[in-house]
Amino acid sequence: MAEMADQFDVHPNQIQEWRRKLLGNADTVFGRGDQHKDEATGKIKDLHAKIGQLSMERDFLEDGLKRIHGPSGKK
Fold it and tell me: Cα separations (Å) of 24 from 1, 18, 41, 71, 72?
């Protein structure tokens, strides 16, 4: 570890931190990354659908309020 720290001019603790992160996330670095990408893509599609639904609901309610209270929203 000391040799690597000297060779790359970093502190040995930094090398240990990088090693810990690599061991903790090796599955995403070396293979399962595509699976995570597919999961993220599906989640993004679900969130976009939810945004569309909420936008439609808001517009519907806003139009209803305009009919009841007039364009300014005041009675």
Answer: 19, 10, 23, 57, 56
Type of residue found at 75: K
- pLDDT, position 33: 58
CA dist., res. 5 & res. 40, Å (int): 36
- Whether 26 and 37 map to the same domain: the answer is no
Q: CA 45: distance to chain centroid?
A: 12
pTM: 0.46
Residue 7 belongs to domain spanning: 1-30
The H-or-E segment that residue 33 falls in is helix 33-69
pLDDT at 32: 63
pLDDT digits (tens, 9 = 90+) for 32-75: 656 667 788 889 999 999 999 999 999 999 999 988 887 665 55
Structure tokens at 28: 């995403």
